[in-house]
Amino acid sequence: MALGGQYRVVMQVRGSIAFEESGSGPLAVFVHGYPLDHRLWLDQLESLSDIRRCVAPDLPGFGSSQPLETFTMETVADSIAAFIGNEQADVIALSMGGYVALALWERHPEVVRSLALLDTKAGADTPEAREGRSAQAAQVAEQGTGSLVAGMTRALLAPEAADNAKKRLAEMIEATTSRAVIAALEAMASRLDRTRLLSTIDVPVTVLVGALDALTPPTVAVEMATAIPDSTVSVIPGAGHLTPIEAPDDVSALLRHFLVR
Length: 261
Ligand code: MLT
Fold this sequence. Notes:
This protein is α/β, with parallel strands linked by helices. It contains ten helices and eight strands. Helix 8 links the parallel strand 7 and strand 8.
């Protein structure tokens, strides 16, 4: 059920990671993208709480979590592995969260029971993408994260996105510090190409993508799924890059189908 922009505010903290948790059963960890926080997943935390202990952390430096000294996909993956501890988790990850999830698979496969990769890709940045990131970092250093809202709303959401998706996106961007944004931009610009890792994934994977995702379009998602041995791919009609808030019911239903398979 869509939450209509109302957030639960009860957060917990383990070590330097703040997180929100719901439900009981096997652990599922939800990894948000850039420049967002755990609130990306509030609808799924509610919808899937009858089949999973759903835990949505704020990545280091984002939301209420403490920053890492060095922010790279690898250091963030290590912090997620430490957060999962001796358990295994279904790892559900969007965009930059997907970059982290692939680093997690590379470095700590023992903690991963399955992977849901939403609106993400395995490749590295192109030189043009890196230039765009430098420009965005300069903008944020000068004008703050609020200056990102209009452009990112256009880039991340489908043109017909609901007002509550726009509102939730704006709230997450505005709550993110300039320091976190700049660290994440640098980390994404220098992240490794993990395309060759895909064929090594030997847990079940589902790939979800918004039909109107302009950043990581369905062609990229299908290509990624094709390279993963045990995978399915679903294209979500009408949604852009932020499927969990643009099409919350579709995403929850697809994740439920995957998790109870
Ligand atoms: C995200 O949604 O996490 C970012 O847009 C990913 C990216 O910029 O590569």
